[in-house]
Design brief:
The chain is α/β, with parallel strands linked by helices. About 40% of the residues lie in helices and about 15% in strands. The chain has eight helices and ten strands. The strands form three sheets. A six-stranded parallel beta sheet has the order 7-4-3-8-9-10, with helices on both faces. The chain has a two-stranded antiparallel sheet with strand order 1-2. The protein has a two-stranded antiparallel sheet with strand order 5-6. Strand 3, helix 5 and strand 4 form a beta-alpha-beta unit. It binds nicotinamide-adenine-dinucleotide (NAD). Nicotinamide-adenine-dinucleotide binds next to helix 5, strand 4 and helix 7.
Length: about 240
């Protein structure tokens, strides 16, 4: 095992993530998207272990808790410069911090939600984001019957003031929980206001310029994929 880390954690073979290299593999390469998704699973498992007072974990136990194979886990962790030591395993707190840094989760993420309907309100009221580094700082709507209403500890802002409130709150991520027909227009305003990380629930393909990270959540598509696998599993001679 080689490690450039001169900290006491070097025995775990975990190299620090240099500033500005978050989201990149060791050596500055991008981490493959599938590995990024799995890193979030490891982080969740590690944080559960931390809460339970577990200090060290073997790669086998962490893999099992995350629902992946040990070889996949070791390969994924090598992307963030982390190589477990046989017989020693990983220091849970340090590995958790290291993965969080690689994923950019040590940043101060401030999330604004546009659309204070069923979904937007549910997201704003959900208490689980803050503990994972996402602070919901604003929620907007266009309906004057909704503007000014309280949602959790926030008050709904008028979307007419979108740019002003985004700047004032320092929001650096926006969630679109809007009807499809208005999503592109709002998305354009968000981008023009300088927010380059957008998560959209709207059932429409949005166009964004280069340099803007857009993720789309589509539960209907996920359900369709699930239905496909369920149907294959029920068909004799097919494997899901
Ligand atoms: N991807 C998914 O898995 C998933 C799941 C549920 C809902 N959705 C989608 O999320 C969106 C919201 O769903 P919902 O159930 O909360 O709908 P909703 O009708 O309850 O809420 C939409 C809100 O957006 C507001 N709005 C409309 N135009 C606006 C604008 N220009 N600026 C700001 N606010 C505006 C409305 O006043 C309303 O309060 C819909 O597009 C829906 O199809 C996606």
């Amino acid at each position: 095992m080689t490690s450039l880390d001169s900290s006491p954690h070097a025995v775990q073979g975990v190299q620090p993530v240099p500033a500005g290299q978050e989201g990149k593999a060791a050596g500055g390469k991008q981490i493959p998207p599938a590995a990024v998704a799995r890193l979030t699973l490891y982080l969740r498992a590690l944080n559960t272990m931390l809460a339970e007072g577990v200090e060290r974990v073997s790669s086998e136990s962490l893999a099992e808790a995350s629902g992946v194979s040990s070889s996949t886990l070791r390969k994924d962790l090598s992307h963030v410069g982390s190589y477990g030591t046989r017989g020693v395993g990983y220091e849970v707190q340090y590995l958790s911090r290291h993965i969080a840094a690689a994923l950019g989760l040590t940043h101060d993420w401030k999330v604004a939600i546009v659309g204070a309907g069923n979904l937007g309100k549910a997201l704003a009221r959900y208490g689980g984001f803050e503990s994972r580094g996402f602070d919901v700082v604003a929620i907007f709507d266009a309906d004057q019957m909704v503007v000014g209403n309280e949602v959790g500890w926030l008050r709904v802002s008028d979307v007419a003031d979108l740019e002003t409130v985004l700047h004032r709150t320092g929001a650096n991520m926006v969630v679109l929980a809007l009807p499809a027909a208005v999503a592109q227009g709002v998305c354009d305003r968000v981008v023009a206001a300088g927010v380059h990380s957008i998560l959209s629930f709207a059932p429409v393909m949005l166009q964004v310029p280069d340099g803007v990270n857009l993720r789309k959540v589509d539960m209907a598509t996920e359900l369709q994929i699930l239905a496909y696998h369920a149907q294959r599993a029920q068909t004799p001679g097919q494997t899901a």
